[in-house]
Amino acid sequence: MSSIIEQAIAAKRKLKLYYIGYSRTVEPYAYGLCPDGLPLLLCFQTEVQGSVRTPNNWYLVRPHEQVMIKMLEDSFTRFQPGYIRNHPAFHTVLIQV
User: Fold this and answer.
1) Domain ranges of the chain
2) Please, what sign has the CA dihedral across residues 65, 66, 69, 74?
3) 3-state secondary structure of 87
4) pLDDT for 50-75, tens place per residue?
5) Which string of DSSP letters, residue by residue, matches 35-68?
6) Which helix (H) or strand (E) element contains residue 29?
7) What is the pTM for the complete model shown?
């Protein structure tokens, strides 16, 4: 799963995150480890089905809790407002745009 996330960030391609009963289309911006050592993904939501958007559309995801992650053909070229490189939620950043 981490290789799909890393490939999507490197290629600036959107991901589809599938949960039980709903899905989110996101632009992945950073992937790494949170302070407790678990994987963490910083992404911007572009589409949500069956759920409420976060207030500013930025979303921190623990990918190990996802049912499925799929890389899409769609790409993104501009940075969304509010993007923070080396986000403080990460203990270690493995890859970021």
Assistant:
1) 2-96
2) negative
3) coil
4) 666 666 899 899 887 767 899 999 99
5) TTS-EEEEEEEEEEESSPPPTTSEEEE-GGG-SE
6) strand 22-33
7) 0.89
- What are the residues facing 30 on neighbouring strands? 42, 96
What CA–CA distances, in Å, run from 71 to 4, 17, 60, 90?
Answer: 7, 9, 17, 22
Model confidence pLDDT, tens digit, residues 34-50: 999 999 999 999 988 86
Going by the DSSP 8-state scheme, the letter that residue 78 receives in this structure is S
Q: Are 12 and 77 in contact (CB under 8 A)?
A: yes
Burial of 21: CB neighbours in 10 Å, binned 0-12, 13-18, 19+ = exposed
* Partners of 68 in beta bridges: 18
Could you give the CA distance from residue 37 to residue 15 in angstroms, rounded to a whole number? 23
